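Reply to dn_fold:

You asked what the input looked like. This is it:
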Amino acid sequence: MAQLTALVAVAVAILAFGLVSRRAQAGILTPPLAFVAFGMVLGPIGFDLVGYDLEHGIIHALAELTLVLVLFTDASRIDLAVVRRQHDLPVRMLVIGLPLTVAAGAVVGLVLFPEMGLWHVAALAAVLAPTDAALAQSVVGHPKVPPRIRQALNIESGLNDGIALPVVLILASLAAVEAGAGEGGRSGLDWAQFVALQIVLGPLVGIAVGWLGGGLVQRAAKAGWVDGSFLKLSALGLALLAFAGAELVHGNGFIAAFCAGLAMGNTARDVCPRLHEFGETEGQLLALLTFLVFGVAMVPEAIAHMSWPVIAYALLSLTVIRMIPVALSLVGSKLMAPSILFLGWFGPRGLASILFALLVLEKLMIESGPLLTVVVTTVTLSVLLHGLTAAPLSAMYGRACERMSKMAPGAAEDRPVTEMPLRISMADQ
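and this is what came back:
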């Protein structure tokens, strides 16, 4: 009976938001914000209709499937040749800003959580470094925000989760050694070999699956052998093949999924738009269910262990820990101050941070301590603050850009760029 009640509650949540989704997304109510709120209402801090603890198998299964699909589809949207030619802003933010964000997060973590240890706070910082443009879709889809700026955020969020993942694995492994955790008392050398196998074999398997499998799908599609529905489903098949294949040879399946998407997106681009259609529907459903489970099971856990250092770190993570590294990475870009502030603020933390935190705690067997509490608090505040500010600040910034363009024609913000698909399509809004 409890399972049926949970199913009914989830179905009602999906239907209820679906009925008002177009109007809601045009305002301040983003889908992640709505589903986190649904989860909190349905969970133990609300009506207690749905109850999952963090050890429940469905949470980890949902998290793993969602992460595999998100990594694959995000990477497949990125045309690396175009990025190299036109999109220097996200390259700066990834190559310079991302490492500085991890370093800044580790320094702040050592100050606020000295008991955690260096590698533990560094792992926390890496988990919170990736951004999720879906939490601020009014930004990446706003017609008045210059394409170069919104595409910088779009490309950054599409690549930084895959780039951050090996860093997360390495730092979490070091944290496990630091804490004396691990399988059978693994030594530091054992962990080093473990990580090396994962970050070498994972990319190799992923590239092979993306290149060979993507090419096979593209040739079959051109020959007219593939039904449209199965062409979309091939995205899931390739993502899961890369994940499972890498795990079979002791590589990391998540890194493999990301590399498979990147390889396919750059060698079989003709079929990518159809694959993205799958990600827009089934992928979005998995993501929103993850946010709902996040509200049911993870937010109450974080509230129970809330403290002032946790809140302080979460607020700093969303502001100075992100904004100062972004500003430093954009030195010399000729962007005006409002644009640098805009890019710095809109680095929402979402799916990747949630899923990376679960991955760290499950796969690498380190004690959660405040790590999970800090991650959940940061993501919750991000869902709320970035969701509420996305539409009004985008409109305000768009008007400012129009004034800047009139005052200074040829501004760096107005440089034309090729646009790439967004995780959440805005075409019908």
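The chain has one domain: 56-181+193-414.
Hope that clears it up.
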